[in-house]
Amino acid sequence: MNRTGRDQGVLNPPHEDVTAWDTGSWGTDPYANALRNGHGPLFLRRTDGWLLPLDVERWCAGADTADLSALRRCEGPVLDIGCGPGRLVAALAARGHRALGIDVSEAAVDRTLRLGGSALRRSVFEPLPGEGRWGTVLLLDGNVGIGGDPPHLLRRTADLLAPGGLLIAETAPHDIDERVRVQLDDGGASAAGPAPAAPFPWARIGTPALLGYARRHGLQRVDQWDADGRSFVSVRRSRTVRTTSQTADTENSAAVISSQFPRNTSGDSPLAGS
Ligand SMILES: C[S@@+](CC[C@H](N)C(=O)[O-])C[C@H]1O[C@@H](n2cnc3c(N)ncnc32)[C@H](O)[C@@H]1O
């Protein structure tokens, strides 16, 4: 495959039913086992055999400097889409932020709860608490790939944000816009285990592609930066409030989202430090 991913075998599945196909794959044994063990090997295997290593050890560790460079930019209540084992939700909660993780993997949600974070087992494409009221939505660790259709995911994200809300996304460190089908692969660790789940759509995009798709959905660039070899970008939903009911919703958003959390958190201010 070339660096832009526009080669043979690249699939574009924008018309599939995302709620149907995205939940089975990450809920399967290879991912659950890796989270249980706290390490890989774990890969996304493309249908042409190419392997994208997944950084399970980092996901199961505490938030690192690069993570904190994103977390300190968070504003208001934070929704972490595809929270995995929960290091970001836990780090936000520890700093007094209201943060909710959502993930389709039961193992991921269990681990997030054990870390003291709040999490729901839910797909981003299903109805979620606080729609249109989140101060910040996170799509880190390659999660812009969820669903394999970044424009669709960005439109969904824009709908989740409050007016003026911030999307913080991690992008591929090079200019790429790739849509593929992948399977989770543990490199043979469970050779005697069940047959691998069916391939599912995934995507990788760089910052230029993300900014282009974001603009289409009314999300304007705020910032972009690199940290520890990882690339991040933040975009903001317009502050314009379109309807009277939305104005009321926005004013009540903090209270409404607060009511969804078991813990008493201290506020919405951006995180201190980096
Ligand atoms: C690339 S991993 C990122 C892991 C994670 N950010 C962490 O800190 O460990 C993708 C994560 O997104 C979750 N996921 C996949 N599809 C999803 C969906 N439709 N809605 C919510 N989460 C999803 C997976 O279960 C997995 O935990």
**What's the name of the CATH homologous superfamily?**
Vaccinia Virus protein VP39
Sheet with most strands: 7 strands, mixed
The chain-level mean pLDDT equals: 83
What is the number of helical segments per DSSP (H or I, 4+ residues)? 9
Strand order of the largest sheet: 5-4-3-6-7-11-10
Number of domains: 1
Alpha carbon gyration radius: 18 Å
Protein model, in words:
28% of the residues lie in helices and 25% in strands. The protein is an alpha/beta fold and 274 residues long. The strands form two sheets. The chain has a seven-stranded mixed β-sheet, sandwiched between helices. A hairpin with a 4-residue loop joins strand 1 and strand 2 (51-53). The protein is globular, with a radius of gyration of 18 Å.
